[in-house]
Amino acid sequence: SQQGEEDPQALSIQEGENATMNCSYKTSINNLQWYRQNSGRGLVHLILIRSNEREKHSGRLRVTLDTSKKSSSLLITASRAADTASYFCATAPRYNNAGNMLTFGGGTRLMVKP
Amino acid sequence: DAGVTQSPTHLIKTRGQQVTLRCSPISGHKSVSWYQQVLGQGPQFIFQYYEKEERGRGNFPDRFSARQFPNYSSELNVNALLLGDSALYLCASSLAADSYEQYFGPGTRLTVT
After folding, report:
1. What does R_g of chain B's alpha carbons equal in angstroms?
2. Facing A42 at nearest CB: one of B97, B101, B107
């Protein structure tokens, strides 16, 4: 089963615009991560935010985490056509004796038009 | 440095057959995890292996099994294939069992007809 739900499921924007994707989850987490996937291939790790952090930046990416609402958002600023991909949030549970298992959401398909 | 490698890239099998997928982790990484990604969905955790021992198992039937070798490479086996097993199978490696940053391979696309 998938813990996270992502919103929207699909997003189409023009190059240069900002893209915002949201993720909600159900259980207590140790951290939340965002991944990108191009054309159904492997996942690329973008950013990890720990449960005691509220905001994190990496280049054009900004991630926020609200543990009280069990939600996170990923903002991509000044989008480029190369940002076209599917984006997934993944959570690592706080109490887990099963190693580093991640639970993924359903993903947001982002299309950036030139 | 080479990333996570998986073989084969694509595979077509018939219902009832068995399949073995292979994964080589990043050099120095001792943990390997397997995920199944059905088209249009996010990946689902199948197994994690660390130092040749199973560290975690997802909600998959016993038809799914895996093992890890002394060189930390891993195989995922699926018996008695069903149409619903058609998916992209992703392998991820990490330094240790509790390392949350995972590095994914390109995946193996399995089609069951």
Report:
1. 13
2. B107
Residue A98, chain B, CB below 8 Å: the answer is yes
Rounded to the nearest 5°, which phi and psi values hold at B83?
Answer: -55, -35
Listing DSSP states for A1-31 in one string gives ----EEE-SEEEEETTS-EEEEEE--S-EEE
Residues in chain B with CB shorter than 8 Å from the CB of A107 are: 41-42
Question: CA B59, CA A26: separation in Å to the nearest integer?
Answer: 18
A1 — pLDDT class (breaks 50, 70, 90): very low
Nearest CA in chain A to B41: A106
* Residue B7: pLDDT over 60: yes
Q: Give B51-80 pLDDT, tens digit per residue.
A: 999 998 999 999 999 999 999 999 999 999
Neighbours of A84 (CB within 10 A): 19
Q: What is the pLDDT of residues A2-13, one digit of tens each?
A: 556 888 999 999
- The residues pairing with B78 across neighbouring beta strands, listed in sequence order, are B19, B64
Give the pairing of strands B108-112 and B10-13.
parallel
- Residues 50-79 of chain A with CB under 8 A from chain B are none
Q: How big is the CA angle at B106 (ends B78 and B24), to the nearest 5 degrees?
A: 70
